Amino acid sequence: GAGVSQSPSNKVTEKGKDVELRCDPISGHTALYWYRQRLGQGLEFLIYFQGNSAPDKSGLPSDRFSAERTGESVSTLTIQRTQQEDSAVYLCASSLASAGTDNEQFFGPGTRLTVL
Amino acid sequence: AQSVSQHNHHVILSEAASLELGCNYSYGGTVNLFWYVQYPGQHLQLLLKYFSGDPLVKGIKGFEAEFIKSKFSFNLRKPSVQWSDTAEYFCAVSTSGSARQLTFGSGTQLTVLP
Questions:
Q1: In angstroms, what CA-CA distances link B99 with B15, B32, B68, B94?
Q2: Radius of gyration of chain B (CA)
Q3: pLDDT tens per residue, range B81-91
Q4: B51 and A104: CB-CB below 8 Å?
Q5: Is the CB of residue A46 less than 8 Å from the CB of residue A65?
Q6: Residue B92 in contact with residue A105, Cβ under 8 Å?
Q7: A26, A4 in Cβ contact below 8 A?
Q8: Which end of chain A is more exposed for a tag (fewer CB within 10 A), N or C?
Q9: Cβ neighbours of residue A76 under 8 Å, at least 6 residues apart?
Q10: Above 70 in pLDDT, residue B48?
Q11: How many CB atoms are located within 10 Å of the residue A83 CB?
Q12: Contacts of B52 (CB under 8 A, 6+ apart)
């Protein structure tokens, strides 16, 4: 595709519900990243996928957060039992490679999650 | 772990004024440095990046940044801003060892008055 796409663009949910966010990376990009941006703050790294390697989950804030990616395609970020502090914009990025000058990350438009 | 500081949270300038946004990072090893911009209602997009070589890097739309290793800095500059430069600017760093996730600063909101 032309760029990274994410869905939904906005999600409002009630505290305690589960949500699933989707990311479609740029075709051919082997690396995929999820970030979270809380209001007034910078982006926080959540998780990283590179090809078929085990993902780097070091940024996930709790075990309520999980993500999957099938091969080098779509990824889903799942938040279980959502809390109000999970409210943020969730951004996905992809890159051709994870190292060297090809690791420019291209960002999607984000999903704005609001937990009531 | 590395960290990035952007000390200016909101900068307001008039058109044609010169711009310098500060960015400092903390990491003792080799780093890759980036500036991203987010225009209102748009995606984050890359302005410029530094991996190696000439520490003065030129990016899109007349922006440039200088890597000063001794100061752990990568300040963004533009000699003459335009109203269309109104946006949020993020400095980011990745370490060359993993070159994986980016560590971002908290961002600087630039408002250019016409």
A1: 37, 8, 20, 5
A2: 14
A3: 999 999 999 99
A4: no
A5: yes
A6: no
A7: yes
A8: N
A9: A20, A21, A22, A23, A67, A68, A69
A10: yes
A11: 12
A12: none
CB atoms within 10 A of CB B45: 14
Nearest-neighbour CA in chain B from A93: distance (Å): 10
Is B43 touching A (CB cutoff 8 A)?
yes
* Residue contact A103–B103, C-beta within 8 A: no
Instruction: Say whether A56 sits in a helix, a strand or coil.
Output: strand
Q: What is the pLDDT along chain A (116 residues), one digit of tens a residue?
A: 579 999 999 999 999 999 999 999 999 898 999 999 998 788 999 999 988 888 889 899 999 999 999 878 899 999 999 999 999 999 999 988 765 565 788 999 999 999 99
Asked if residue B36 lies in contact with residue B44, where contact means CB atoms within 8 angstroms, the answer is yes
Do residues B102 and A105 touch, judged by C-beta distance below 8 A? Answer: yes
- Among B45, B100, B103, beta carbon nearest to A98: B100
* Beta-sheet pairing, B3-5 with A75-79: unpaired
Number of residues in chain B: 114
Q: Distance of CA A54 to CAs A6, A23, A31, A92, Å?
A: 23, 18, 12, 18
Residue B98 has pLDDT above 90, yes or no: no
